[in-house]
Structure formats: C-alpha cells, structure tokens
Design a protein that fits this description.
Heat Shock Protein 90, 4 domains, flat, 6-stranded mixed beta sheet, 479 residues, Methyltransferase, Cobalt-precorrin-4 Transmethylase, Domain 2, alpha+beta, 4-stranded mixed beta sheet, 22 strands
Length: 479
C-alpha cells in the first residue's frame, strides 16, 4: 500500500514532501535539517511511517505512533530555534483488518528567520530547494533576516500546553498588585497568553514557575569603586528563572547592598535610600520588558558602583535610534519589543499602558541636583539606564573628556585626539569609542586605528568582561 492510496499528492506538492519509515535515533540531525529547511523556505510536509523513494506505507500501531510523536517533539524543542510552526496529525489506514497509522507533519514557512539547527553548540542554517535540503547561502541568510526583521519573539507559539497550576507565581504577583483580585484564564487568553488550543506563546513560557532557561539570565555585580576595568569586584551573583523571580532577585540583590543615609532637616530627620524603590522597580521592569529575548548567551546586567547603578538590557531600543547619553528620559520613545510580556506587566499594574515608565524615575529624582540626575544611553546591542546613588554626596563621578596636547607622530588617523581623550579617564570598548566618534565599529577601525595606537604605545589594552578595552597611557600624552 502506497502513500498515494490514502493521500492525493500533486506533482507540484511532491518536491516539498519528505518521507521517513522511522525517525533515526542515531542521526537525528539528518531529518531535523529537513524540518529547519522547510521552515526557512515555503514549508512542506514530512511523513513518518512511509518508506522513502517508494512511498510504501510502513505504519505504526497507536502506541508506536505516540512514541514517535513524542520523540519528534522533544528533538524539535532541543535542537531547533526559534521553534518551527507545524501541525502534527495521525492518519489511519486498514490493512488485513488491522488499524495502522502514519504521522504527517505540515511545516509552515516561519515568520521569523533564519530557523537555526544546533548540535553540540554548533549552529547551522538549512534551506529547502527543489526537493533537496542543503546549507543556506550567505545571500539567503541575509534575505531571511531582512524579511523577518519585525517579528517579535514573545508572540510566537512555543508548543507547550497551558496549565494554570504552572503559573502560581504570576497569579500571586497579579493579586499582590491588584488588591487581591484573581487573574482569570479568560483574561490571559484575551492578552494572547495562549491559543484557542491552549498552546502557550514564547513570552508566556517565561512566566511559568519552573522556567530555568538561558533567555532570562541575569548578572548582578557590586564594585568597590567607579569603573569595571580598574576596581575590585566585591561580589557577582547570577540567576536564571521565570520573570517574576527575576524581578525579586534583582530587587533583593540591590536592596541588600545599597547604601542608606539620614538627612538632617531644620526640624526633623529623614531616611534616604541610595536608589528610590519606585525608580529601581521601574528600571527593572523596563529592562525585562524590552530585553531582546532572541539574543542567546546574553544577560541583563545590574552593576552597582560607588556613585551609581547601571541597569543594562540586551538589545538596543526596538525600532528606535541609538542614543548617546541623555537626561531627557520623559521624551524617549521606544516601540515595544515584546508585546505579550508588556501586556502581562500592564495587566499586573506594574507597567504603564503607554510610554516607557521613565516618568516615575524622573519624578523620584526631581529634587536631586544636577550631579544626581538619572540618564540613559543605547548602542547597537544594549541599552543602559543609569541611576545615581543619592547617598553619595558628590554625585556621579566627573567623566568629562580632557584636552590632549601630545599626539602620535606621524598621526594614525584624524580621530587620534578624540580617541586618546575619550580613553583617558576610563577603559573603553571599541564599540563605545566608535559610537563616541560617530563612525562604524568596523574591522578597519579596530585594526588600522586602534591596534596601531596600541602598537605605538598610546593605548593600553585590558579585559572588560569578555571584551577588549582600551585605556590611554597618560605618560604618553599631556592632559
């Protein structure tokens, strides 16, 4: 009995069909790349229980089909990202009065591309063309990226089923911030938390009680002085868990380590926290809500210094321009990168329905002097909110750019003076220097300008996290 006997397939459809008699347990990459290739192209149909080339039906018992389906789903979840969109169904047929099943997986073209297949931490991108699956070309990868630029991570289907008992922390968080009210399933579904078939969206999974994946990684650090590159690190704590626990982790870390002071007034005294609680909470919510969850291997960073705290979130402002240091927080406009996550925070009454939430931060610092005003900046890969420590009387350390009198001879480039001045007070990463100069952080810039200044002794390099940082040798210049 052949596949054509139970399903009519046209000649045009046949190029987008792949058949396997059984899923190979020893070489899962061999068939997973077909699913990834379908997703990166125009979709296709994948049959299990059908002999390749001959299309002869091999079939499964009901129990065997269930096992094969579960193995398929587990391998997809483990090795392919973003999760491809597919519909899996059992097709029954009779042979010798015995009911058997084949499995049909209809794979749709993915709205977010490229779909990546990862084995042993090595990512690969495949494309389906004219009945064959091969590695995608450089031009195809660029075209896929451009086509899917506006797709949001959190609204894609996860493949996981919604179960109310898995979201006790979210439900308690909602009740706490809404006078004891209950967050209903109807309200969750109306936000797009799960589909009519009870399938969770990606953003919803991040709220589940047992989530512990890499997409919510956080690193909180406390430094003894003013910079990362030259100061002793007192402590570093790392965390990965659901978004509710993430909020609590950051708030607890900062509250346990921030400074407190007592301010004398003419007829009383008031207690003063380094960081106003509402401003801190708004900054944390903003970082979680607008983080780019597509970026694997990244983390939200909370860095506490002697004079300030920096809250950095992966991804620049969504569909917004890169901005240099600005104190005008109220006028910053940024589109939501994660629509579902923002809706949940709004529903929980911890985020404004419109705007960035920076107004509350500005309000909490309204009475502070100019050296204690919060500011924000963004680059191509992160945005950072800076909250001054109100108990540090001098305010944020002066980081003004000095004038440089001695320059390399012969000059390396027209940017020499600005680079050496910018790197005088603190070590800077190449991306920060390029952003300051208003030029591209290119290979040419690093090798033909920065590296030449290093080899001539005007710049000294050291490590800042995992990146190289550049610091001016002040013995070589006159400030």
């Amino acid at each position: 009995m052949l596949l054509d006997d139970i399903i009519k397939i046209s000649a045009m459809e046949s190029v987008n069909i792949e058949c396997k008699s059984r899923l190979n347990r020893e070489n899962t990459e061999g068939w997973l790349k077909t699913i990834a290739g379908f997703s990166n192209a125009e979709g296709g149909s994948f049959f299990i229980g059908v002999e390749d080339k001959s299309n002869k039906l091999i079939g499964f018992t009901r129990k065997e089909a269930d096992n094969e389906r579960n193995f398929f789903n587990n391998q997809i979840n483990e090795h392919i990202f973003p999760r491809p969109i597919y519909k899996l169904s059992f097709i029954s047929y009779q042979i010798h009065d015995k009911e058997l099943f084949i499995i049909k997986i209809d794979v749709s073209e993915s709205p977010i591309k490229p779909i990546i297949l990862k084995f042993k931490n090595v990512p690969s991108i495949y494309m389906r063309r004219e009945g064959f699956t091969n590695g995608a070309t450089y031009e195809e990868i660029i075209a896929m990226s451009i086509k899917s630029h506006n797709t949001q991570f959190d609204v894609l289907d996860s493949g996981y089923e919604y179960k109310r008992e898995n979201f006790t922390k979210l439900l308690s968080f909602y009740s706490e911030h809404n006078s004891g009210k209950e967050l209903t399933d109807k309200a969750l579904q109306s936000m797009g938390f799960f589909t009519n078939e009870k399938i969770l969206k990606n953003g919803a999974v991040l709220f589940s009680d047992d989530y512990s994946g890499e997409r919510t990684q956080i690193q909180c650090s406390l430094f003894a002085g003013f910079t990362k590159g030259s100061e002793r690190i007192i402590t570093i704590n790392r965390f990965s868990g659901n978004l509710i626990d993430s909020i609590n982790f950051i708030m607890e870390f900062v509250n346990l380590r921030m400074n407190h002071a007592m301010v004398k007034l003419p007829d009383s005294r008031i207690d003063l926290d380094a960081y106003p609680e509402r401003a801190l909470f708004e900054g944390v919510i903003n970082a979680l809500a607008h983080r780019d969850y597509f970026l694997e291997g990244t983390q939200i960073q909370i860095d506490m210094f002697k004079d300030r705290m920096e809250i950095s979130s992966p991804g620049s402002f969504y569909q917004g321009e890169k901005i240099s240091k600005t104190y005008d927080l109220s006028n910053i406009i940024s589109m939501r990168r994660n629509e579902l996550i923002c809706k949940v925070f709004v529903k929980c009454n911890v985020m404004e329905a419109a705007g960035t939430g920076f107004d509350k931060i500005v309000s909490d610092y309204a009475d502070a002097d100019e050296n204690h005003k919060p500011y924000i900046f963004s680059s191509s890969d992160h945005f950072t909110l800076v909250l001054p420590d109100l108990t540090y009387s001098l305010g944020i350390k002066n980081d003004s750019i000095p004038a440089i009198d001695v320059l390399p001879a012969p000059p390396v480039s027209e940017h020499d003076e600005k680079i050496l001045a910018f790197c005088c007070n603190a070590p800077r990463k190449a991306s920060e220097i390029a952003n300051y100069l208003g030029i591209s952080d290119s290979t040419y810039f690093r090798t033909k300008i920065l590296d030449v200044l290093v080899s001539s002794g005007y710049l000294i390099t050291n490590k800042q996290g995992n990146a190289k940082a550049y610091k001016t040798d002040i013995k070589k210049v006159k400030v």
